[in-house]
Every structure is written in C-alpha cells, then in structure tokens.
Amino acid sequence: MTDLQNIVFPSLKDRVVIVTGAGQGIGRVFAKAFGKAGSRVVIAELNEKRAASVSGEIMEAGGEALAVTTDVADPNSVNEMVEVVTDDWGRIDVLINNAAIFSTLEMRPFEQIPLEEWEQVLRVNVTGAFLCARAALPAMRKAGWGRIINILNTGAKAPPPTGAPTAVTRAAGLALTKVLAGEGAPHNVLVNGLLVGRIESDQWVKRHAAENKGRSIEAFYDEMGGIIPMGRVGTAEEFANVACFLASDAGTYVTGTAINIDGGLCPVV
C-alpha cells in the first residue's frame, strides 16, 4: 500500500478549508490531512468538545485550525460560521461538505422508516450541503477560485436495500454536485463528489456494533474485504488523500465528477 505520509500537495499551503462534521470519523481525518498539508482548517462541527479536540490535534502538530460550533441544518448557524471564517482568515478556498447522518440509522424496510427520521436525514445530508455551499459561494466567486467537495457514498449510484434515507440523500448530493459544477465553472469554482465505499472509520465501527452483536469489527472488515476486488477495505486516509488532490492545483480541470473510492467494488456505476 502507498505510504500516504509521503504524498504532499504544496498548493494547499495556507488555503482556508472548511470541513463540516469534522469532529469525528472521516471528517476528522480530512481535517488533519489538510492541516498536515499546511492549510488553515475550519472544524465546522455541531459538537463543541469534538470540534475543539480536533482543532487542538491539528495545532499540536504545528498546523492552523479554527473550531466553529456549527449546525449545518440551521441557516443562521451556517451563515455565522462563514462570517467567523471570513472575519478571521479573509476568505474561503475549499468547502468539504462532510456532515451527515449515517452510522446512527437503523437499516429497515422502506415502509418502516419513521417520517421524522426521513426528514431529519434529508435536512442534514441534503439541505445542510445546500446551505453551506450557498453561504460559501459568494466568497469563492469574488476570489475567482474555489473548490467544493461533497462527501457521498457508493449508495448514490448503487443503493442497497433497507437503506433508503442514506441512498436517497446521497443521490440528491450527486445531483447537487453536478448543478453546482455547472454554475461554478465560469468562476473557477470546481465542484466534485467523492463516493466512499467500505473503509475503516468510526462510523462503520458504530454501525457494526449496532447491527452485529458478538462479531468483532476485524471479522466484519475481513468479510467486506472478501467481496472487494482489491481484497481489503480502504482507510480514511486514502479517502482524504483524494480530497486533497481535488482541492489542490493538481485538479484544476476536474469538475462535475463523482469518484468512486471503493477498491473496485462498483466499477460500472
């Protein structure tokens, strides 16, 4: 496996990068990866303690970070977060729309999904990305440079049974990506989606614990690796590295795409 510690993106230095839902899971890994690359990282997270913890990790490693308590489903909260960022650092270069409800959802038949749960997932996963992009776009257009990366999953193209809320919102995120890409391109605001497959993450650990009593997470990962062409689940660092590529000057002609990061599991969708 590639030594990710040796992969660098010099053009990310001093870029102002907002990562929503960065207090845990892959969001935390994204934030630390950008921090290591020299970016100024905004931890836009609902949980204040988690936001402060990740911000502290980045700064202890010599990076720059700003923790801003943010509810992505609340337009006032999102607007306040953007104001804090622009007041402190003067601009917004990259927005990673990562905040989502996933690991706490119960896999169940469509007709058993509570309306309240359905609406909450839509509000966070779809409306949250819409609100954050809407708030960040003016600064990007003004600068003539911006990157928006929507974190989705392979369910956007190949939805599993009994996972309707996640799959539907991820498919909506895919459409949002394409719409924003078309509108942003004339202003050099590039918008792409990342479709995550099976990776080692806090979210999968939580989901596994809720659904697979008595079986270790290692056994679960081994089982998943058995159906993935590369023979293993991925790591959150591998996922974050693709986000860094898209946000860097290496991806200056890439927009409107949705990249599968799944070890070849869904090659035809």
Question: How would you sum up this structure, described in words?
Answer:
With 269 residues, the protein is an alpha/beta fold. It has a single domain (10-261), classed as Rossmann fold. The chain has eight helices and nine strands. The protein has helices at residues 25-36, 48-60, 75-89, 115-143, 164-184, 202-211, 217-225, 236-247, and strands at residues 16-20, 40-45, 64-69, 94-97, 146-153, 189-196, 199-200, 234-235, 258-261. The strands form two sheets. It has a seven-stranded parallel beta sheet with strand order 3-2-1-4-5-6-9, sandwiched between helices. α1 (25-36) links the parallel β1 (16-20) and β2. α1 packs across α8 (236-247) and α4 runs parallel beside α5. The chain is globular. Residues 1-5 have low confidence and may be disordered.
Describe how the helices and strands are arranged.
Blueprint: E1 16-20, H1 25-36, E2 40-45, H2 48-60, E3 64-69, H3 75-89, E4 94-97, H4 115-143, E5 146-153, H5 164-184, E6 189-196, E7 199-200, H6 202-211, H7 217-225, E8 234-235, H8 236-247, E9 258-261
Parallel strand pairs: 1-2, 1-4, 2-3, 4-5, 5-6, 6-9, 7-8
Helix pairs in contact: 1-2, 1-8, 3-4, 4-5
CATH second-level architecture: 3-Layer(aba) Sandwich
Low-pLDDT stretches: 1-5
**How would you classify the helix and strand content by structural class?**
alpha/beta
What is the residue-mean pLDDT, rounded to a whole number?
A: 88
The CATH class designation is Alpha Beta
- Determine the CATH superfamily: NAD(P)-binding Rossmann-like Domain
Order of strands, widest sheet: 3-2-1-4-5-6-9
How far apart are the termini?
A: 25 Å
Number of strands: 9
In one word, what is the shape? globular
Topology as a string of helices (H) and strands (E): EHEHEHEHEHEEHHEHE
